[in-house]
Amino acid sequence: MFLFRNCSQLTTIQIPDSVLSIQDYAFGNCISLETIHIPVSVTSIGVYAFNGCPSSMTVTYSGSKTQWDKNNLLNIPLVCNKLEATFNPDNGDPTVTKFIDNDKNSKFTELVPEPTKENYTFAGWYNGDEKFDFTTVPTGDVTLTAKWDINQYTVKFVSDHGSFADQTIEHGKPIGTGKPTMILMHTTKGKGVSYMEDQAGWHGKAPNDDEYAQGIQELDALRAELEAK
């Protein structure tokens, strides 16, 4: 518990990866301690572990600031060796966490493949409301969320009864006219029944039993012909 307490000559120390916690007062009153390196294996630090150490002491941590905070380690000045990026694809897939070295050269470029989402087009990774610039050197941990643009389609109308302007419609949205819609159908009266086809006299008139049987027979034959195509 008081492993290095009052070691006034101790100036630097590197804690091995096998250490899981730093107890209370472990480095208490180490008045000459300048640097200490803490590995990610450490998940707890006693409240008074560095009591009485110089305020200018540099603490380096082999993980990221997010990892440090997640483990509820002490709120002391530190330098993290890693930077962390969390990628949220916002498409039902799980988030992905990636790390890079915290230096002047490393970037978060191409850490994860471009995500996909049905009926949407990927518009980039965003840090809040701003699109993240992967060409810059990051200065801290980031959470990036995929932005999606819904697909749009151009609807063209082909008609023998006048011309209609093309419309650009978002996926899942109805074609808009801005006016009441009426559907006009050009049909043939009695189509498929030989004695009835295009004969105005059959309008409102019911066939007798023989005519009905003949009509059904002809319609069944026509349906079979169409289904065979």
Rounded radius of gyration (Å): 37 Å
Task: Walk across the major sheet and give the strand order.
Answer: 8-7-11-9-10
Would you count the extended β strands for me?
Answer: 13
**Shape assignment:** rod-shaped
State the low-pLDDT regions, or none: none
Q: What's the helix count?
A: 2
Mean pLDDT: 83
Q: State the helicity in percent bands.
A: 10-25%
The percentage of residues in β strands lies in 15-25%
The N- to C-terminal Cα distance equals 87 Å
The ordered string of helix (H) and strand (E) elements is: EEEEEHEEEEEEEEH
Largest sheet: 5 strands, mixed
Class based on secondary structure composition and strand pairing:
alpha/beta
Could you characterize what this model shows?
It is a single chain. With 229 residues, the protein is of the alpha/beta class. The chain has helices at 65-70, 209-227, and strands spanning 12-14, 21-22, 35-38, 44-45, 58-61, 79-80, 82-88, 96-101, 120-127, 130-131, 142-150, 152-155, 167-170. A five-stranded mixed beta sheet has the order 8-7-11-9-10. Strands 1-3-5-6 form a four-stranded parallel beta sheet, with no helix packed on it.
